[in-house]
Amino acid sequence: MSDSTNVEQAVNERYSGAAAARTRELCCPVEYDSSYLEVLPPEILERDYGCGNPTQYLKPGEVVVDLGCGAGKACYIASQIVGAEGRVIGVDMNDDMLALAESHRRSIGDRLGYHNVTFHKGKIQDLALDLRRLERYLGEHPVRTAAGLESVERWSAEQRRDQPMIGESAVDVVLSNCVLNLVRPEKRHDLFREMHRVLRSGGRTVVSDIVCDEDVPQRLQDDPTLWSGCISGAFREDLLLEAFEQAGFYGIEILRRGSEPWQVVEGIEFRSVTIQAFKGKAGPCIERLQAVIYRGPWRSVTDDDGHTLHRGRRMAVCDKTFRIYTREPYGADIVPVPPLDELPDDRIEPFDCSRDAIRHARETKGRDYAVTRAPTDATCCGPGDD
Fold first, then answer.
1. Backbone angles phi, psi at 134, to 5 degrees
2. CB contact at 8 A, 188 and 243
3. What is the distance between the alpha carbons of residues 259 and 273, in angstroms, rounded to a whole number?
């Protein structure tokens, strides 16, 4: 963008205004379970500037961070879904939005009977640096020289390393609702890296955002008003999925996609999507004689690492891939075929994940498997069966 400072200022000013009064052009119609809205005051209910409802995919007991939490509506809904055993962290950089969100934290928690929501001031592309802590430091150490600036930069680096606002592998779910497109293009690599960093292995992102079906011309990208309105900063929909893949996520899935565009600008359609993506494919590939069978209905499918599964065939996989395939989001489509006997540790060897291979049944049963056994269930094929 030609003037990123103006864009950030426009975003901040527009959302400060939206904290004071409802701004309809910042939101798409979103439906929520009404039972979660009963504890929320009208001023939070009215200041909902999202384009989807990623909270509906949460589970009890999870630790959640909501990026760009705004007035806290999603946080307080998530609080009820994850329950007293879970925890919700809201992150936003707009003081007015945070003040509104925090002003009701005690009263909402009292009504629920537990307090599991906290709010932090920070940039969603830098979840390690607490901006309130930085502001306090700057108040005590005003920057007047280049040496002073270097001191602040060193202090910030130490904070990220030693006292991160959100630590590595700290949360189960990263939520966001129509805020990724507000981050400048040159910072988006950092944004996806941070989402990946704070998630535990097996954790996931659930992101609702506005996407476009064509590239947005540079002159529209340079318009701060369009940018702050979630228009000119929109990801092209295929590139949003690609950004998750490049950051190391797997199991990337479109959960919802608006059938009709939210807005159309110069023929470019802008619509809401909700994306889910998982963390956890890092680690060594080792051989444990495991296989998986893809149920179908496609003849074959290829995963994010290039493994091709052929319908109905026993495909050889490493232990890491076996564990990934047998849980969300793949588990419903996969039949796991573990070995009859676990390999002892002294027989475990590296597995070559660069090739696809069919696992012979004797590999999982054992070469010397010669059992003869009567039917285990006499009713399986008895008289009268259909």
1. -65, -40
2. yes
3. 10
Extended strands (E) in the chain: 63-67, 87-92, 117-121, 171-177, 199-212, 235-236, 250-257, 263-265, 268-278, 286-287, 290-294, 300-302, 308-310, 314-317, 334-337, 349-350
What range defines the domain where residue 88 resides? 4-128+164-278
pLDDT, tens digit, 9 for 90 and up, residues 307-339: 999 999 999 999 999 999 999 999 999 999 999
pLDDT tens for each residue of 250-270: 999 999 999 999 889 889 999
Query: Same domain, yes or no, for 259 and 290?
Result: no
Query: CATH code at 45?
Result: 3.40.50.150
Distance of CA 24 to the CA centre of its chain: 26
If one counts every other C-beta atom within 10 angstroms of the C-beta of residue 75, the result is: 28
Q: Cα angle at 33 between 29 and 35, to 5 degrees?
A: 135
Three-state DSSP string of 210-243: EEECCCCCHHHHCCHHHHHCCCCCCEEHHHHHHH
- In the chain, the largest separation of any two C-alpha atoms, in whole Å, equals 92
Residues 118 and 238 in one domain: yes
Under 8 Å between Cβ of 42 and 104:
no
Q: Give every CB contact of residue 354 below 8 A, 6+ residues apart in sequence.
A: none
| CB-facing half-sphere around the CA of 77: CA atoms within 13 A | 23
User: Strands across the sheet with 314-317, in order?
Assistant: 314-317, 290-294, 334-337
Mean pLDDT of 152-160: 97
Whether residue 41 is preceded by a cis peptide bond, meaning omega within 30 degrees of 0, is: no
Instruction: Give percent of the chain above pLDDT 70.
Output: 88
Q: Quick check: bond before 350 cis, omega within 30?
A: no
Distances (CA, A) of 119 to 36, 93, 272, 278, 312: 19, 10, 26, 24, 49
Confidence of residue 23 (pLDDT cuts 50, 70, 90): very low
CA separation, residue 83 to residues 55, 166, 382 (Å): 13, 20, 49
Q: Do 212 and 237 meet the contact criterion of CB atoms below 8 Å apart?
A: yes
Interval 136-140 mean pLDDT: 96
Looking at the 3D structure of the chain, how many domains does it have? 2
Q: Structure tokens of 172?
A: 């189960």
Token code pair at residue 105: 């934290």
Distance CA 385, CA 381 (A): 6
- Give one DSSP letter per residue of 135-183, joined into a string: HHHHHHS---SHHHHHHHHHHHHHHHHHS-SS-TT-EEEEEEES-GGGS
